């Protein structure tokens, strides 16, 4: 019943173009493979026999990305060599293929992998470490080029469009198509001088076919970061193959998204720092490519600038993204790499003259400064029509001491529905309160979420005080109100919670980074480093029971680490108080 309610609520919040897009995708995916029409042959006929490519703008932009990620060049080369030897690793999960030449089919080898993993394989993400790791066109060996050629040939022969029902949710899912366009166009631009004429022709025909298909199947039904990915891929395809219609279509998608997918503070509406870095990179690339070919877009350039400035404002003392909502390390460009890329393409990263304390549109606020800072997620639980990557963490706090993250978020293990996915999105996995055993929003499956909090926020930077209030009232959940007040003075943060829970017990949790241990010490909890040196003291007040338990931490896809969690339980209506100090007395 709850799953049906959540699905209904999620669907009701979708915009008309999203619902229409879902209907069109479902009909196409089911009907076209059953019609007496060879869809793949139609796209083959639309593809020129020998398309002309304009590689210089792509080569210049790729070089800017290579310079921005230069510190990882050896790692990229190792991953590229592994792929050539037949081992592909995505989401920290490796699969071995015979001779490295059947990496895109081999259904018996991919059968146990998640859709997320398969999309990366189908998107030729194993080419990314090749064009990021090698800057010299002559650096690839003849064997590597032959293996890459076999990858392409195998795909062309084994994956016709609309060969079976559901193709739009599988190997021809537009998101995978976008990745193929990015990876093969950059591959040709980087190594084309060392490739045979036939290989270059086949790459260009392949990109052309994929771009034509993408142009007809833009993900309006999904929206969000997927739609931005579509627009950016059409821009690069239009530049690479000198097709004005694709450049124009991609530009229109990105310009519209710039106006309706970003808050006034420059943050992306899905409120995931990881996805923000991904869409920021796409806007930076589109800005660079369009400017190079003499077709700059003021709206795209503005969005690239403001999204980079937002990333700078969100930048923690340890220079790694906060893992808020669906975020992990290692998926997007690293925060410092993305800002370096912004500088490389001529976009300021906003490192000077920009307030770092508040991001009102996104609902993120910093308390403190320098290496000792607290980040508060004081925002609505989700944008109603884009709930897929939202977590239930109202008023969630993260804390850095001496530049190290001490109180952490949770991250994401996987996107497949299951206990890990449910746990990662839940209030119990964040540094906030939970009433009873329920959640402040209804969650089901992998991406369904329904519920609104109607938060009010008051933030005074001058005296370091933030007040956050919201109410929960809905079907299948207890009605309650939560008021959280956080104050900061010197190196002391005080978090106060008043919860009108209608008699339900209240639990507050503080998740400690795995690098530290939490220990009970009389009426306090000491957080210590590996040398048993104190880092933080937690002094709770008004709780009936305080304990240190264990909870999972998912800093990367497919990686789970245990960590201590301080659990404070209370069954009364009086305020709950927690005070953090930077050191133990």
From TrEMBL:
Q: Which residues form a coiled coil?
A: none
For this protein, the record's Pfam families field holds: Hepar_II_III_C, Hepar_II_III_N
> Quick one: where is this thing mainly located?
periplasm
Question: A Gene Ontology molecular-function term?
Answer: lyase activity
Compartments where located: Periplasm
Record keywords, A-Z: Lyase, Periplasm, Signal
Extract one GO cellular component term from the record: periplasmic space
Domain Heparin-sulfate lyase N-terminal: start-end pairs: 152-331
Q: Which InterPro entries match?
A: Chondroitin_lyas, Hepar_II_III_C, Hepar_II_III_N
- Name the SUPFAM superfamilies for this protein: Chondroitin AC/alginate lyase
Protein name listed in UniProt: Uncharacterized protein
